Amino acid sequence: MYLTSFRQRQRGNAAGKLLTIVLVLGLLGLGGWLVSKDMLKQGGDSPLSSLPSSLGGGVAVPEPAEPVIGTPVLQSAAPYEMKNNIIDIDMSEYAGYGGLIVANGGLAPNPESIFAKQYGFQVRLNKGESEEWSALNNGQMAAVATTADVLAVLGRQFEVTVPAQIAFSRGADQVVVDSDIASINQLKGKVLGASQFNESEFFIRYLASEAGVPVKVLRDLESRPAPNELGLVFYEDAFIACDAYAAELSGNGRLNGCVGWSPRTDEVVAESAGAAKMLVSNRNLLVVADILVVNKGFATAHPDKVKGLVHGLLEGNRLLRDDPQTHAGVVAQAFGWTQQETLDELSKVHLSNLPENLAFFDGSIDSAGSFQGIFQSSVLAYGALIKNPADPARFANVQHLKALDAGGQFKGQSISIAPIRTSGKVALEGDALLSKDIRFFFEANSAALDKQAKANQDYLDTIKKFLQVSPGSIVLLRGHVDNAMVADFERQGGPALVKSMALKAMELSRQRTLAVKEALLARHPGIADDRIELVGRGWEEPIGQDSEQNRRVEVQWFTLE
Questions:
Q1: Which segments constitute the OmpA-like domain (predicted)?
Q2: pLDDT tens digit string along 297-322?
Q3: CA–CA distance from 393 to each of 152, 190, 367, 396 (Å)?
């Protein structure tokens, strides 16, 4: 199949969609009432009487979409040809793309835009709600605003270049679950509704991957995952996925949550009477990065035009970031939002500047996901679906960012991505977002890390990535030792010896977590000391009969919400 209009990205304001839904439901309700009334006059039973009252008088529960097997197939690559000196860019209704709108002075081609005045071309911003990856690949448009995770899925067939990062989503993407689910680890055996091959699927796959929870794609709500798996059922878009979860909350309960976008996720929680809650958002989990993706043939033939797009984007971001009150009106008019709605939606994004762009691509950014980090996370999250992963370097092209930097453009800007705090510091007394067991290698009967074990360095990098992508987050290192000798201690010295050795085991396990912390800070000196907490649990919390598995350091990740 060719992918022409795959999954909708209904992020941002949903006022228009809600109005449409209200009108449709009203018409359905009126039609149902008329049919019912007519049938009752004829002495028949109403066809609506057999439906649960919780379904709103006959509103059908959304049906899952048939999942695509494998990865999407795109139309063949072809260069984009500019017409009438106008460049076409596709984007969805999302505040993160506001910088492009401000730079262009709206959606339509504009001779007074930054692009026209400084680079001699005009831009047409096409507002759509479907991913136009195939059309971009085939040369039907010059560029698309999308998210970095999708590049790993589309792979080598996607003949594009990425010259700039646009923004980070901060709070728009959310996982809503049954109120008794406290962590990602507790999603084992559960089923969530999502949308395939966009940030809805990536967000939950990323979290499940980090928690070590396998994902199983299900075709319908009657199918169930294995007890150790998270099941995903896909819908045409994330908005509908959350509609389905809301209906199941008051119906059969076959869904345990949904992965979607504000404001629909907020509405599901508010209307659930306490049955649902928001488990996590990306407010302080910056792994959803919006990027500008340009048709490769066009970019190769017109590097000056691509430089103009990058420059205009960064200037629009600067204007909107520095003075949102003045410039939000242009975005509001483009999307049909009010000024206040626009400002509210802008609060859920971080518009990236030039130094943040450079750090995003070279991997030095320390308060958000990097281009390569998100790409590799996407490869890991999708697992076997991606048969032969591409190299992320084939997509990134930072020559225009470097040229703007060398020319002194945006001088004085700095990296400024801070935690968004709503309730002070992270509370370690609550539940961790996720927990991951790591088997660090230590010297025998010692708290000293084995310096010859390369795996130890990889494990340290894993912990660092938790802290990197989530500003303000904390990791709690819980040390554990095996309990194989407890029975021997009991025989040799009774309860007194067991108690004495238990205290020593707790101290050893704590010393091992301290060794991990010290090694982590030595390898990554930019990490603040107070973002790493320690506790030694000795042999009190075995996970099974295997001594090797019990001898571990458990990493618990607490994020800000």
A1: 429-561
A2: 999 999 999 999 999 999 999 999 99
A3: 11, 37, 22, 5
